[in-house]
Amino acid sequence: MQKEITEQENDLIEAIRNFQRAYPNGQKELRRHARMIFDQMMFR
Q1: What is the rounded radius of gyration, in angstroms, for the C-alpha atoms of the chain?
Q2: Which residues of 5-24 are buried (b: 16+ CB within 10 A; e: fewer)?
Q3: Is there a contact between 4 and 22 (Cβ–Cβ < 8 Å)?
Q4: Model confidence over 3-28: pLDDT tens digits?
Q5: pLDDT at 23 (0 to 100)
Q6: Which residues have C-beta within 8 Å of that of residue 38, sequence separation ≥ 6?
Q7: C-alpha to C-alpha distance for 16 and 26, rounded to whole angstroms
Q8: pTM metric for this prediction
Q9: Which residue blocks in the chain are alpha helix, DSSP H?
Q10: At what angle do helices 27-42 and 7-19 cross, to 10 degrees?
Q11: CA 13 to chain centroid
């Protein structure tokens, strides 16, 4: 069974995957970006 995901869900997954690779440069921005996407998904 294959599940389809939205573009927003895919963006969140990619931000989380890239979070560790971004250390130390850009890690804060990726955390902020992932949190923003997550909040939009939860509170819309």
Answers
A1: 12
A2: eeeeeebbeebeeeeeeeee
A3: no
A4: 899 999 999 999 988 887 887 788 88
A5: 77
A6: 12
A7: 13
A8: 0.74
A9: 7-19, 27-42
A10: 150
A11: 5
